[in-house]
Design a protein that fits this description.
Elements: H1 6-22, H2 27-34, H3 38-45, H4 53-63
Length: 75
C-alpha cells in the first residue's frame, strides 16, 4: 500500500507491533484474539494494507490497550 496516508498506517502498524511484542504475543496469537487472519495482521503491521476502524478497535481490545495508544506517534 503506497498512498498519501502510508506514513500514518506505518506508524499504526509499528505501534501494534510494539504492543504485541511487549506482551510476548505472536502475530498468530494476536490475530486469533482480534478475530482476523494472520495474513491480515501481518499486512496491517507492515502497512501493506489499511483496515477499518472496527478492526483497529478489535486489535486494541485484543491487546488490552486504549485505542488511542495506536495513534500515539513518535517524532
Amino acid at each position: 500500500m503506497k498512498n498519501k496516508n502510508f506514513d500514518t498506517w506505518l506508524a499504526i502498524g509499528l505501534n501494534i507491533l510494539h504492543y504485541r511484542k511487549e506482551q510476548g504475543l505472536t502475530q498468530m496469537q494476536l490475530a486469533e484474539k482480534a478475530k482476523i487472519s494472520k495474513n491480515h495482521m501481518q499486512r496491517i503491521e507492515t502497512a501493506a494494507c489499511s483496515c477499518t476502524l472496527d478492526t483497529l478497535i478489535d486489535i486494541a481490545q485484543a491487546l488490552d490497550i486504549p485505542l488511542k495508544k495506536l495513534f500515539e506517534f513518535k517524532d
